[in-house]
Amino acid sequence: MSWKLVIGGVGGQGVISAGIVLAEAAVIHEGRYAVQSQSYGAEMRGGLSRTDVTISNSEVIYPKVDQAHVLVCLHRKALNAYTGVIRPGGLLITDSDEAPIRGRVDSRQFAIPFAATAREVSGSERNANICMLGALVAITRVVSREALTAALLDRFGTRDAVTAALDAGFRLGNEHAAAVAVRADAHEAGRHATSARM
Amino acid sequence: MSWKLVIGGVGGQGVISAGIVLAEAAVIHEGRYAVQSQSYGAEMRGGLSRTDVTISNSEVIYPKVDQAHVLVCLHRKALNAYTGVIRPGGLLITDSDEAPIRGRVDSRQFAIPFAATAREVSGSERNANICMLGALVAITRVVSREALTAALLDRFGTRDAVTAALDAGFRLGNEHAAAVAVRADAHEAGRHATSARM
Amino acid sequence: MSASGSTATGPRTVFVQGNEACAEAALYAGLSFFAGYPITPSSEIAEHLSRELPARGGRFIQMEDEISSMAAIIGASLTGSKVMTATSGPGFSLMQEALGFAIMAEIPCVVVDVMRGGPSTGLPTQGSQGDINQVRWGTHGDHSIIAITASTHQHLFEATVRGFNLAETYRTPVVVLFDEMLGHMRERLVIPEPGELPTVDRLRTSVPEGVDYHPYLTREDGRLPMSDFGGVHRYNVTGLYHDMWGFPSTDPAIVDDLAHHLHDKLELRADELASVRTYGMEDAEVVLVSYGSPARSARQVVHEARLNGQPLGLLELETLWPFPAGVVRRACRSVRAVIVVEMNMGQMLRHVKAAVDAPERVFLSNRVDGRFITPRDIRRVLRIVEGQGE
Amino acid sequence: MSASGSTATGPRTVFVQGNEACAEAALYAGLSFFAGYPITPSSEIAEHLSRELPARGGRFIQMEDEISSMAAIIGASLTGSKVMTATSGPGFSLMQEALGFAIMAEIPCVVVDVMRGGPSTGLPTQGSQGDINQVRWGTHGDHSIIAITASTHQHLFEATVRGFNLAETYRTPVVVLFDEMLGHMRERLVIPEPGELPTVDRLRTSVPEGVDYHPYLTREDGRLPMSDFGGVHRYNVTGLYHDMWGFPSTDPAIVDDLAHHLHDKLELRADELASVRTYGMEDAEVVLVSYGSPARSARQVVHEARLNGQPLGLLELETLWPFPAGVVRRACRSVRAVIVVEMNMGQMLRHVKAAVDAPERVFLSNRVDGRFITPRDIRRVLRIVEGQGE
Amino acid sequence: MARTAIKDIVINQEWCKRCGICSTFCPKDVFETDAEGTVTVAHPEACIACELCERMCPDLAIHLEYEPPAEAPA
Amino acid sequence: MARTAIKDIVINQEWCKRCGICSTFCPKDVFETDAEGTVTVAHPEACIACELCERMCPDLAIHLEYEPPAEAPA
Amino acid sequence: MKSIDSYLRTRFMPHIWCPGCGHGTVLNGLIRSVDAVGLNKNELVMVSGIGCSARIAGYLDFHTLHTLHGRALAFATGVKMSRPDLTILVPMGDGDALAIGGNHFIHAARRNIDITVIVLNNRIYGMTGGQFSPTSGCGIQATTAPYSSIDQPFDAVQLASAAGATFVARTTTYHVNELEQLLTRAIRHHGFSVVEVLSQCPTHFGRRNGHQETVEMLRHFKEGTAKVGSRQLAEQVDLIPRGVFVDEERPEYCDQYAEVIQRAQAARAGGAGGEEPQ
Amino acid sequence: MKSIDSYLRTRFMPHIWCPGCGHGTVLNGLIRSVDAVGLNKNELVMVSGIGCSARIAGYLDFHTLHTLHGRALAFATGVKMSRPDLTILVPMGDGDALAIGGNHFIHAARRNIDITVIVLNNRIYGMTGGQFSPTSGCGIQATTAPYSSIDQPFDAVQLASAAGATFVARTTTYHVNELEQLLTRAIRHHGFSVVEVLSQCPTHFGRRNGHQETVEMLRHFKEGTAKVGSRQLAEQVDLIPRGVFVDEERPEYCDQYAEVIQRAQAARAGGAGGEEPQ
Ligand SMILES: Cc1ncc(C[n+]2csc(CCOP(=O)(O)OP(=O)(O)O)c2C)c(N)n1
Ligand SMILES: Cc1ncc(C[n+]2csc(CCOP(=O)(O)OP(=O)(O)O)c2C)c(N)n1
Ligand code: SF4
Ligand code: SF4
Ligand code: SF4
Ligand code: SF4
Asked: What's the predicted TM-score (pTM) here?
């Protein structure tokens, strides 16, 4: 059982560290396997930024993500650049303010105000990536909430802002997942993705 | 018709420039072919020094001298190091003071006091190499006297000392050749060498 | 570097970049001196060691360039330290002269080349396998060299440790090669307990003080025991041809012996030095030959093909030099086709062709545009080779 | 340099070292800028040019090392000068990074490597042919390169002129290779009259000022016209992958095109670039393949064998890279045996083997002890190959 | 030290990277910065045309436009 | 500045390359040189043990041997 | 002046440098000084190495040669020697100029070849991600100095002067008018000229060393430096001096070489081989 | 002192240098100063590059490492860093130290690593046959300067000082007592020390420049130099100063690194990853 995820944004949004933390949650706190890789633009700062994460219960052979179960986009530029990577029936999660989705059919879509929420609950948009991770995990269960929490604590120590952003993310994720579930098939989408044979 | 010669000595004796001048005489002043190469010891000055010269009426293919028609030694060290290079029936010319020959059968031998003569006629032992060239040419006719003289003048201009050393060399060469001729077979040896098929 | 199981001695599971895996392996193998100059995509090796070496009593120095980095590790090795430097293509080109010195003077050392796109400045942040032949032939003059690679962090760890072992065993530089992809990618790595992987210590002479020691006299088992600079044996080390005491010589017999020794001590041991991994090779009718990170794509293709019952196998090379010709020949004997999978213009292809019995049945699946080679890329070549078109 | 026939224009017969022959050829070809750093056995090239270049209005500079020498000639070439540097193994190793830049940026230039014994400092005053594979693979990343050699001063003169012509024609560095023996040996050389040998001038763009000029857009005939720095077209030159204006790009399609262009522009023209000389090849049953000064020993063997009626031939390669595989294959088709004669551990041997139909019939006659290979050495191998023992 | 009167202070928002140099070092507080760092010319009338903003800007994103010098009537 | 009396000035003729430094710079003209450059110790008695010859010799070919210091009678 | 844009390859703007990076300010000042000197773009060659600073070349509409890390001055020497009439500008990072490129730097200075070097000194390796450089100095945090650096720094001004540069100056990205003036003087100078510009790398130097933002770093340039000859400098020894340190006329290399050509041709015209120098 | 021979590998004597070559005199003086310092041969490592001067290493019965042209100091840095207790001596030719090796020279000086460099400056490339070097200066005849050289020379003392060397001195092969004293001080100095020794190459420099013989060249060293601080020097500006130019105590690199190790181990002992420096 392999999850293939892509998280995209622009430099400074913490996209890459989000990918690392997610993978660490799986490897260090769940004893599973994960591979994380990244690519940047030529810009020193502010260019496109992308991380590919594969999480699996067995060794990951091919390390890249050519077709993602989940694409997360924290910035409009990333959305434009990366939507093609989602596999049919995959999941698209975006920041509803930064990267509004303009109709797409073959993926389940969640638009959630990560930056705004992070600013609100933790005082800084910088924690948008943490908020996003919470929501992602709440929606997909790609790793457990406990593992993600532990991985974040390893990296940042116990900081109120971090916990606040994370909790908000969990909450938002649950809400949206529930809302989509009401639209009948959303939860199934998450399940579906996880059971695809890799 | 190819002549293969080796001239040996120690650094500072002008062995290599002697080889070059001889070859230049053939190439520039007789329109023939020649190859000259050299080897030194590790010492910056005063180590063994050797030059190989091949002179021919047609293109020289193999450039080294493995078996020499003529070996010239201006120093004892060279004599010790290089005698093996003379082909059977070849010619050995040494400075009688610097490199006295101790009995060897299968080559015709000429021991001539080049350094002493050069000192005497030109005021400096440094011209021993020129004196040697004169004698070598007088004995072997490997190039013409005219060509050798012209090549020397090209290099050194008209200097009395040079001319004196050269003329003394010619004279010594003639004398020794004649003396050996008296010993019946000497001149033939020179001829013999020149007609060997290369 | 995040880790679980943080007892100092037990195995530790960590989630790290390939560069860090390589650096940790070096420490495991006994690295005590590193000199380097930053260059993408290898800099994390230096960065990791700048932190870890002093904490473990070792020494790190950032030199003024790659030439001096290579020189410094050679100097340090002579005092008895296990040493390493790390760079990428442009820096590796600059190291060639000093690398040749280490070969000639038989100094154990490890050089890591994290490959990016070349030639020249090329594609600094993208992976490639363009330096394969350079590793073999980059320095002037006849010589031989050991080069190893791997395709996963766990294997890279083992390969790096083996690299140090081989450097010590054969008194030679060993190049550890991998590409940007592996260097920057993070994955799970279990750092073994001390002792779990064998490590080879410097073989020091047992000749006592006052007795003539020959730094360049080969023992019957082919090894040349060393004596540390600062110890009781004072000898000479030079890049010139030299005698068994290390003093310059131009004696043709000595030169001939040394030239052959430097070449043969590795080339004649190609089989012994060969390290390969096989996947589905038992009854393979078509064989993929690959190495480094592209071997993962190849393995993915084999994995999927096997699920579909296709008789496809993968021969993954971990020893690149001396080229394991014997192993390749035997593995590819009587197969229908061989496809070399690599990220260059076919640098290993020619060696595989030279090794096998039917060179006309060897094909290439490659990529040189800076993107990582995908299973799809390989499958396409496979189809074409099988006459099934794109 | 002593000369006869000193009219300024007519052919001149001179008696010179190989190094001087090479330098004179460069001047003949239009050399106007030389940068170098002294090293045995190449220094006479720099010395000769330090005297001759200014006398003919050109420029000579002694740089601080070989890296800067290589860099300086690239800079000078961009202003429209024909340029050269000369070195030997250790210096050539140091030039590898900048050589790769010239390959990537497609800068015409000529690099002379007068080979001495390697690896490392090796045998500074003795000849070898140890750098053959280094020339092909010394710089990092995929690339191709032209390398030429010769065995007599007259041929070296012609080869060097051809080297400049090829550099201009293909916008690429050309390496002129020969060994210490040829470099230091003196022999007769007839310097041809101007015009007697063809010389290729820099192909300059005809695009007028104000119109978009593409320094990296290949014409239909495969050539890329240049525009001199200081002229009316301002463009960019870089060692990164770049677009047709010379600006950096990581676009996979652009990278892929350029990588293939750099490789194919020479490798696909291997036959066209091949220059060989044959001796007694018409009905040869055994073929010697050689290049550089050892080819003279081989020729001597053929010469003598033919006098005895033995059907021995010599294929002398003057183009080493791209390797003239087609020519070699055709020449060695249906012969009883091929003996490669070279002064290294068999660097060309492997390429000859890869080229011919029956690699098992290819043998090696070599020498790596610093001494020049003799006809006797070759004859011994010949006898063994023919089953006649030593 | 205005060479001539300022017509306009133009900020190229496409090039500006919001580093804050201009607004910090402007001696007359001509600029204003919003929460996201976007700089606007708030008080052009206070400008003394010292050109510091234009010269310090690392993104070449500020340009002072001057009134053409008053021409003498023909 | 003799530490003690000179016993001998030894020239290692095997090592000497006849550069003439010792004979030129000896302040007391202790050495003599023949036509071929061979240096001999001609006037040892004049030596003041300044050691210049020994220290300047590029071939380490000169050595001053000193008398052992007179020992106090036991 | 001509419009800034007329010197730029605007299609590549905005440039790739980080927000607040001082290298952009140097680009800004350089364009103004080139304009002040009044050079034609066809006469200008910019040669750079590798580093964030080296990227300057890409943005300027001159003849531009983006070379190898540390080697720009060697390439530039070749350009200048064969076209002495061209004006050569060489922007270099502190690593590029003084780490890997140190030798070419001192040798170009020694020759006094007419090239203008701008050392963009941000005391860090920007492009490769924040390793210390030979100008970082002791006590600096860098990715390869996690326990703070122990390397004594070079003083670029002293090194250039000792090596033989005939115009040597220093300024900062805060002192933009001085920057323009010094660059103008350097370009006009006939001989090897060096202008060291203290430049900020907020991304790697600032962030690791006291979390300094751009503006703080610029303030530090303002407060931590003083003009040579100023009273302030005399009183506060820890200030870094700014201004012109060397300004001499000495024979320029290409001029000297023109004389070599004359000597050589005179000797050749003189006839016989024997009269040529040996 | 112990006998000279006890420091020599006498089986290689007589050495390969030319008659009258100054390098032998330096070897002579060096042995005396090593003896004066009283070091054990097992504690001495000599690292040399390539050149006539580099051949010194072969004759001395120390641990000897004969490396690559120009790179000796980089090798030596590796030796010293991993065995700070050893004494490292690095003899270098002017080409070796200041042409191809210039960068390693200034960087080793900058780090103030405890190595003693002896620059055997004969103003020519001896080993390769008489090409000019970065110390030849203008107006010199050399095989690559047939019309006389136009290259401004480096002043090794100034360069070493500007780069950060903490002991810098100059003497000549004529001043043999001074030579021994300065070498002794340099070896004792804790930090990077440089002694430039003007040395004669009669074969290539002397012969081409006024056909000077060894003895004349030594006379020139005597007459053309004067002690720093001497009246003579003050009066005759064209004399080359001899003596000690820099003698400072500054933190030595290996000592500093020992502190890095302490800091690192303290941080590690301190426990949690969060407390380690970032
Ligand atoms: C031979 C070589 N070694 C190393 C590198 C990697 N590299 C690129 S730029 C750079 C240093 C950048 O620092 P600096 O020169 O100070 O310029 P900045 O980026 O700070 O402007 C390094 C080490 C390289 N490109 N080539
Ligand atoms: C990389 C490299 N380039 C060039 C050389 C050739 N080379 C050997 S020694 C030398 C210079 C010798 O001059 P110097 O260092 O002044 O020492 P000297 O021989 O005068 O004592 C040179 C250029 C080399 N060995 N290696
Ligand atoms: S100084 Fe030494 S080498 Fe020179 S002549 Fe005197 S003893 Fe001989
Ligand atoms: S010690 Fe002094 S006085 Fe005595 S021989 Fe030597 S140089 Fe002359
Ligand atoms: S990393 Fe530093 S030097 Fe590079 S662009 Fe960013 S701020 Fe500027
Ligand atoms: S060439 Fe010069 S430096 Fe070399 S040994 Fe001879 S005199 Fe000494």
From this structure: 0.96
